[in-house]
Task: structure prediction
Amino acid sequence: MNGAAYIYVRSSFGRFWGWMVAFMQYISLPFVITLQILMLIRGTFSPEFASEAWSWYSIHWGAFSDLYLDLLGVLLIYLLASSTFFWGIKVYKKVTNISGIVKWFTAGFLVVAGISLALSQGSTNWHYWVNNSTLNFNGFMNSFISCFFFFAGFELFATAGKNINNPEKNIGKRITLIVLICTIFYIVISVIFFAVYSQFQQNMNMGSWLSFNNKIILYGGPIIMIISGLALKINLGMQNSLYGGTVLQPLSKEGYISDKLFILNKDGLPMKAILLNLWITVIMIFCWLIIPDLIKGFWLTNHPGKTYHSALDVSSLTSASSVITTFIYMMVVLTTLKLTFIRKLKLKVWELLLFIMVFFFLGLILFWHYYSLIRDTVAQLRTNPDDTSPLVGMIVEFVFIIATITFALLWYKFYYLPKYEKRLVNKPHIQERLNQDFVLNIEHLVTFNQE
Result:
């Protein structure tokens, strides 16, 4: 099914909110690909992202350099990787396994390099961060929004419950264990890099190697990271094609989108849904990367000799994606609270208070993101009126969110509802069967509470 969040909300709040969560959850997937495309070619070779503006591997192709680099990432890597499905499931599995092995093997070199540099630096940089870092509300909220992005999606394992032994016990434990392992991993890597550097660039995977004096490492390290990045993006592009397509396929089953997307091929894959997901992702990339690249190119052409900072970077993209994920998690928490208040789910008092606190905290994050986005944009425009990149970034994000919500509302009203009402009249037995997938299993809830 379309993610655990969709199942929870659809069962508790009905079709409309189920559709809104499913649609927003799907939209967050192309966000991830857009971020990866940004870091694929441009994030590696663009002077703006390189640790040193003119590192040996940086490429500068004039005012439209970012556009050319992003198009290379889209055409040569993402579309090529996504098309492996059309070569058959066997080819897909082989390429996925090979790219995964290469990704983890090459990433290990970066970890070793970080540990080596940390040991050579001693405690100098660590003392720098301890003495020069300040903890304030604004910094905490911005950091939390960005970090929240890396913990999204773990709940999706709940949709595989029928394939897991004793899911009532094992799913919760396994998800908790995975989150704990990832948290430890993130903290350890962060500590290593804080011990190595007193300042950071946007792409530390490439920049880390510039701290070595050995020419073999100086040139070999970035080459290894380029291979690692290509393997990672190929693997991610293929995974997005599979998951994105399977996310759309259940929506066609319920009638939210075309029934033709429900058709599976001989390998059990919804190829039409996968193809549609591919086109939607390309459109998202166009909105979030290509349009800002064109704006930057024309601006630089009309302002020779001046510097234009990209309207969208890693931080802005992860923040925008985190906002969508925050809304989805708020609906999941609200579902839990509703089930508790109507006495279909039993929580202890401290658990109930914790869920309420989390709900309001997520709401605060949602508010703070847009408040700080407007505030920081206005402040930057006052400081440097000639640099319109912050305004472009803010406009793109607001237009995207408004257009997304508007599209979801119009689609539900003018496409799904007429189709649903027609089905109730002509084929009510089909709708009854579909509804059974979202009927709360009281016996299961009792068993879950007792566990």
Q: What stands out?
A: Residues 64 and 297 are 5 Å apart (CA to CA).
